[in-house]
Amino acid sequence: MARKIFLGARIFDGERFHDDKALITAGGRVEAIVARNDLPDGEVVTLAGGVLSAGFIDAQVNGGGGRMLNDEPSAASMDIIAGGHRPYGTTSLLPTLITDTSEASIAAIEAAKEAVKASRGVAGLHLEGPHLAPARKGAHLAELMRPVEERDVKTFIRAREEIGTLLVTMAAEQVTVAQVRELAEAGVTVSIGHSDCSSEAAEERFDAGARGVTHLFNAMSQLGHRTPGLVGAAIDHPSTWCGIIADGHHVDPKALRTALRAKRGEGKLFFVTDAMSLVGSEKDSFTLNGRTVRRERGGFCSKLVLSDGTLAGSDVDMISTIRYGVTYLDLTLAEALRMATLYPARFLRLADRGHLSPGMRADLVHLTDALAVTATWLGGEAA
């Protein structure tokens, strides 16, 4: 791959902005950020102002481009989903299988092995279930939920070894401390979610190696002044990461602003979309485990609901969450960008992305000053 020289935009490297500089890429990797009067030879890509950043990373994507992973857990589906989110700046994502059968989980694992190797935006796999708590089922099917068994632990460890990045969401009620420790020591990223657990039960699992909490505030025991619940444990535990859905429907902005101010541990909240198939699609409904989910327009973005009004994932894309963060959550643009790039990369331990330093993947997104995506690049090539 020829050397490219990106000029004309402010460069956000994951930590700070660089003005009047150029980003140099070669061989699909970042080579350097240099002064405009110190340019090497190469193909010049001239950008019309705005911001050039590392591409966005989304740890929770159920669907996109008209396709749900659960409908067809294949590498082809994962490629369609990644392609559906790319126009919104996402260059790395974890296709997410929500609670389903063991056969569907195995199919998703096999598909992820192939999709990750293709290097077209699929960075791993997220299994959100079936080890969740029926009391906090959300839009998941409670009848498929069950405790973690030893065979599951072995399956997850083997999948992590073969895929590279595996995120599993589990309720504290469904996984033991010893199982969390075994999974974490094998490199599986364990996240506690869809759980009605006590703060003490959550903390035991965090201390054993559970790394995060899935969509903070949603489908979990809430913060009470005597019973802090999973929300309180997540905010108070300094090493715990929390994904947040910033779409104006899942969590009131006052609650998100409070969490951002209160979270112990710097830079531990990051954006996820929890997106369903309608992102990147003109359809207004789809089926989820045989149930119709419809799009209701209005608000910051439209929302997705089952017939009983239960939220069923989101209809938000990653650049919209950044706009929401800047507009409603009192975030600086730099911090909002970190929550879509640097922080999820650190949470998922994706060491080669999320930051524009030498040697990192040249996965890029260009934004206008109004925070609209104009172009993306995967490995330095226009995508």
UniProtKB/TrEMBL annotation:
All copies of domain Amidohydrolase-related, residue ranges: 52-381
Presence of keyword Lipoprotein: no
Cofactor-binding details, from the entry: Binds 1 divalent metal cation per subunit.
Coiled coil: none
Keyword Hydrolase in annotation: yes
Names of the cofactor(s): a divalent metal cation
Pfam family, one: Amidohydro_1
EC number: 3.5.1.25
Keyword tags: Carbohydrate metabolism, Hydrolase, Metal-binding
Active site, renumbered: D274 (proton donor/acceptor)
Binding site for Zn(2+): E128, H194, H215
Residues bound to substrate: A139, N218, A219, R226, H250, L311, A312, G313
SUPFAM superfamilies (UniProt xref): Composite domain of metallo-dependent hydrolases (SSF51338), Metallo-dependent hydrolases (SSF51556)
Gene3D superfamilies: Metal-dependent hydrolases, Urease, subunit C, domain 1
Molecular function, one GO term: N-acetylglucosamine-6-phosphate deacetylase activity
One GO biological process term: N-acetylglucosamine catabolic process
Family recorded in the similarity comment: Belongs to the metallo-dependent hydrolases superfamily. NagA family.
Descriptive protein name: N-acetylglucosamine-6-phosphate deacetylase
Higher taxonomy: Bacteria, Pseudomonadati, Pseudomonadota, Alphaproteobacteria, Hyphomicrobiales
Gene name of the encoded protein: nagA
